[in-house]
Amino acid sequence: MGESPEQKAKRLREEIERHNYLYYVLDKPEITDEEWDKMFRELLALEAEHPELRTPDSPTQRVGAKPSSKFASHRHIVPMLSLDNAFGFDELGEFDARVRKALGITDESVEYIGEPKFDGLSLSITYENGVLKVASTRGDGEEGEDVTPNARTIRSIPLRLRTEVEGIIEVRGEVLLDRAEFERINASMRDAGAQEFANPRNAAAGTLRQLDPRITASRKLTFWAWGLGAQGSLEFDRQREIVDFLRSAGFRVSEHIRLLNGLDACKAYVEDYTARRRELPFDIDGLVFKVDSIRHQRQLGFTARGPRWAIAYKFAAEQATTKLLGITWQVGRTGTVTPVAELEPVQVGGVTIARATLHNIEDLHRKDVRVGDSVIVQRAGDVIPEVVSPILDKEHSKRPVPTPPEKCPVCETPLVKREAEVALRCPNKTCPAQVAERIVHYVSRSAMDIEGLGEKLVLRLLELGFLEDVSDIYRLKERKGELIELDRMGEQSVSNLLNAIEATKSRPLNRFLFALGIRHVGESLAFSLAKHFSNLDSIRSASYEELLRVPDVGPNTAAEIVEYFQEEENRILIDKLLGLGVQPLPISSAATGENDPIAGKTFVFTGKLEHMTREDAEELVRRLGGTAATSVSKKTDYVVAGPGAGSKEAKAKELSIPILTEDEFLELVPKEAV
Fold this sequence. Notes:
By secondary structure, this protein is of the alpha+beta class. The protein folds into five domains: 5-61, Helix hairpin bin (Helix Hairpins); 85-314, 2-Layer Sandwich (D-amino Acid Aminotransferase, Chain A, domain 1), CATH 3.30.470.30; 319-425, CATH 2.40.50.140; 452-579, 5' to 3' exonuclease, C-terminal subdomain (DNA polymerase, domain 1, Orthogonal Bundle), CATH 1.10.150; 602-673, BRCT domain (Rossmann fold, 3-Layer(aba) Sandwich). It has 24 helices and 21 strands. The strands form five sheets. Strands 12, 13, 14, 15, 16 and 17 form a six-stranded antiparallel β-sheet that branches. Strands 2-11-10-3-9 form a five-stranded mixed β-sheet. Strand 18 (602-606), helix 22 (614-623) and strand 19 (627-629) form a beta-alpha-beta unit.
């Protein structure tokens, strides 16, 4: 026999509350947002059909989970309610129809405010007569965790409002980490051999809820205000006036908020930001639509869970559930051996995923992922897909716990593990897998960018014996005849390849450093090193103490750089490259002083560029001594706008920042630099 409605409601309530606790309190979700939404909507429908099953403690009457006992609790003056969700234009249309029907509006459109739905941690900040008193998390909507000492370390939270306000008000908003800061924090965690965060949202939540505010202060959290709870003596007629007040009071308010007239405008807003969401420096998982008129908001009122005058439009999930078919072990260019999940293919964010990273053996054991489990897979933007967690079932405990290999899966050299590190390593620098990965990395777009020499051709040339290390790339011209004879090559494609290889001999120093594949030296740090030392000889001979003077270089990274340049095989490789004509250019070579049109200036690129990729344009600016930023601010000197430019161009006009076409930008660049 199947479940009775009463049994089903009880099971759904218990499951939803358990997952609320995992998500809101422990920051360790076990299911996707999509699966939680499905369960929640199932319970809503069941309670609507059987009202007698609706209990006061049902999750449909609540918005989160009880606050953690690690922090003192704080009761919100006005509850922090949640929002109903729309999954597609049909449900957005149903929301608009409900609003118009309740307001008695038939022949005209409703004005809405559209804004990004930040994927962070909600925060309520209480001000008394304009002075910050308490900051607390959402918690269960009625009570949250008092995180005031940590919130005070966030520079975008004013300790005193910039406008005079009498009485007590509650400012509501979201605490975020942008993607660049998230990557920096995870890099430092890797340096320390500590567990990395799974995503920016978890990192923001973990940072805000640190017991030591000094740790919070060391990470660049930002607070974005989107509304008010208690309003004290403040009065508003429109939602847009609340937005203006928050901005004037000293808060960061999204520049992507729009006034939208009717359902069609809301749909166009969805289409715009579905395409542009990855241009934002932080994660959003949807958009929020609010009725603009406060009078209409009061008329529409609230349910027990949230306002009838607002809805969250959720983007297509970037998480999915699939089956873990197996675990293989992959060798990287530095010898790190990492577990890779072999998955039953699944669509995530519009892409079919069949493999995903499991990071390292400790992460694998922490998540307790086992072959045969159903698992949650996540993909955000262009980030490598990863396994978030298993979905535990009755058979999970019977499945064997994965064990790491004792020998390299490629060359069978015994693996080693450094003290205080979680990674397993193959110490054999001639391991075929490492050699292949080093060459693939060297020729990649972000490194030396050798067009025509992709991973498949690299592996083919290794197999044929044409390549043994990176330096052999520059000897391929001696094998031109043999290359022409290969399948799918031909004289023209070989000539193009050899010309592309020749062109890399004068790449900027920062790209050469990144191409070498030194542990912990990414693109940004390679640029800092090249800018600080200006030439390769200075970097090769730099001491540990000298390296620590470079911005963003920590003790572990400095030690890795020194070790790299001290190892004989690396010194021999670099000498061979230099002997074959590779001469990295100083990044400051084209900067001409105070009147230089690029050096010292900040550029933001938006829209589609015709002559180069956006990454190449940003690299060009950095090489010429300028700064390439991702968002427009008062510090921006120029915005370069191509077809499809949107909010960044509008922001530039608002701030009276010069807007250049791509051709106008290229006119500023010295011809020899392009």
